[in-house]
Write a structure and sequence with these properties.
With 125 residues, this protein is mainly α. The chain has 2 domains: 53 residues, no CATH class; 55 residues, no CATH class. It has a two-stranded parallel sheet with strand order 1-2. Strand 1, helix 2 and strand 2 form a beta-alpha-beta unit.
Length: 125
Amino acid sequence: MLFRPPKRRKEIAEVLQALLAKHPEETLYLAWDNATTPEEEDGEAVVRSAAGRLVLLSLPTDSPWLNPLEMLWRHLRREVTHGELFASVKMLVTAAQDLFARYNHCPQQVLSIIGAIPKNLSVCT
């Protein structure tokens, strides 16, 4: 899991490159919510260099129900921040990182949260 400040061209390019490096043989389909676009210099260069392996699926503006990531953020808020008051931003970030570290050991759970697999198949030990 990479944590980056929002809407920064260089960081978007880094995330795209990390995805491509993690999946060197596959074509990746990435839902893009149009908050920031990779058509900006750095991101566009990564998309071009991927030679068709990175396909951006643009979501319509103001349609969070179509973005699977919104379901994951809703779950994160319910699991990490609901009813919690953190003493510092660092403690909040650490709590979020802990949740995603657990999900890294059980990717089926994330797929279940975003509706990609049935909830009864998300059991991890």
